[in-house]
Amino acid sequence: MNIVDLHVHSTKSDGSYTPSELVDYAIEKGLTAFALTDHDTTDGIDEARKAADGKPIEVIPGIEFSSEYEGRDIHIVGLYIDYQSGFFKRRLINFVNGRIIRNREMCRRLTEHDMPVTYEELTAEFPDSVITRAHYAKYLLNHGYTKSLKEAFERYIGDNCPCFVPRKKITPMRAVEIILKAGGIPILAHPVLYHMSDARLDKLVRDLKDVGLVGIEAVYSTYSSGEERDMRRLAAKYDLCISGGSDFHGSAKPGLDLATGYGKLFIPEEILTHLKEKHQDMKEHPQKYKKTKILFTDLDGTLLDSRKQISPYTREVLDAWSAAGHKLVLCSGRDINSVKDVKDYLNLNYPGMYLIGYNGGQIVDCSTGETIYRTALAPKQIAHVMAEAKKQGLHCHTYTDTHIITPFDDEELHYYQRVIKTPVIFSEDAKEVMDKGACKCIVIELHDKEKIEAFRKSLIPFADEEGITMIYSNPYYLEIFPSASGKGAAVKKLCEILSINPALSVAAGDAQNDISMIEAAGMGIAMVNGSEDIKMAATTITAYDNDHDGLAHALYDLI
């Protein structure tokens, strides 16, 4: 019976065989096909296919994406990807940029620990390779800084060691989506190795199936017969294909061989035949594999340019987004009436559109105009915040359903109303003009940042006791709202209401009050003009700022 191996690594990532050497070795081992699935790169595929030309072996173009799920490193293998497509190349550039940032920081930390190395020296020692921690370990050993690879990991570059820098990774759901869009077959790699409980692994597979997972690596080098049976049952439960691979790395994994693993692995060609049949069905019926996504976008500094407008290109991308059946949500710290004003003056009238105001405090369905979710500060909480702000000489205001409420007509109010046109009621006692709580208060100080920060710190005991969150939406604005609110909570709530898997949500923002939204969504986009902390939270950073269609360019590949 013919055999295959659908999970193999070369020197282009962390294997010890070149792509050409793999071809020759696969033929020697009697394989009819193998998939080159290097970590986060396809650089070796052309070499391997060229080496296989005219020989009795099929080289399957593949990749192994590193992703993160609930704090665990999860790998997604892609088979038969169109690795030369413009879309796929753009995605890999994002991966490369993230790796370079992380690798330079690891070099800096090693140097601080008396093991000087620059990123340039590291890449020169391992040319044409995707740098992983295995390369750092080899470098430290080669240069006499450690006595073994094990020591390098245990003392310096292991997960909890001083020189390790975790790389921000995409979710496995996003990896599945990228592979599908590149025309490939997404496979959950070696699930037994994640050491999850049965319930957590089942949930992961269910979530991945929701976004388009096609197969599970149920045949693998380290599996016992019982583990293989469990993975086959899990695949059958969710109608997923079986895949199998050795995870061959050459000398980097001593004792583990191509095709046979540790001696007992056997992957029949029948497994590949079934995957090919599935792949053909995917190409013939693409609509079956398309999923409805939902975009949560901040306004100022993200969707809107400096003139509070959107360009023709951004409108074109939003039109295409909606035409593909996806949903659009305008999400802002502004009051809900101001968010409505933005929608109206931009003439954004898409089906399945929603508005979120007050940093997640209120959600409105545009098709009916009705509020479908609201959470608010209690009147006594508002009164306390406004009284404390008055004591410290700070502007503070809150909201009714239709008006801003504030004690004084001051410079800060005029500054705020440059953009926000909501009418104002002046009252020194907000409770007199409110019939219910408000979704938020906002404190503004235009000239003295230390003054507003001192106010924030003074309010921390009260906020902690009352379940209140305080964050800056820009250097001048301190937003105060219920901790049960927040943009991230609104993302989860609306996905729940619409029965959309949060893994299919996309969030874009630029400021601190967008971080919870970025972290709650399946994919988080930080604007290049945004704060450093939001860039750290996001999975993608735009190539352009909000004055140059940054969001639209990032969104284009997600349609």
What would you report as the Rg, rounded to the nearest angstrom?
27 Å
Overall mean confidence score, pLDDT: 93
Proportion of residues in β-strands: 15-25%
Strand order, largest beta sheet: 12-11-10-9-8-19-20-21
Domain count: 4
Low-confidence stretches: none
| Number of helices, counting only DSSP H or I runs of 4 residues or more | 19
Structural class: alpha/beta
CATH architecture label name of the largest domain:
Alpha-Beta Barrel
Structure explained in plain terms:
By secondary structure, the protein is α/β, with parallel strands linked by helices. The protein folds into 4 domains: 3-88 and 169-289, TIM Barrel (Alpha-Beta Barrel), CATH 3.20.20.140; 92-157, DNA polymerase, domain 1, CATH 1.10.150; 294-375 and 485-556, 3-Layer(aba) Sandwich (Rossmann fold); 379-482, Hypothetical Protein, Haloacid Dehalogenase-like Hydrolase, Chain: A, domain 2 (2-Layer Sandwich), CATH 3.30.1240. 38% of the residues lie in helices and 19% in strands. The chain has 19 helices and 21 strands. The protein has helices at 19-28, 45-52, 86-112, 119-125, 133-142, 149-157, 172-181, 198-211, 225-237, 269-284, 312-323, 336-345, 379-391, 411-416, 449-466, 487-498, 515-520, 532-537, 550-556, and strands at residues 3-8, 31-36, 58-69, 72-79, 185-188, 215-220, 241-245, 294-297, 327-331, 353-357, 362-365, 370-374, 395-399, 404-406, 424-426, 441-444, 468-474, 477-482, 505-509, 523-526, 540-541. The strands form 3 sheets. The protein has an 8-stranded mixed beta sheet, with helices on both faces. The mean pLDDT is 93.
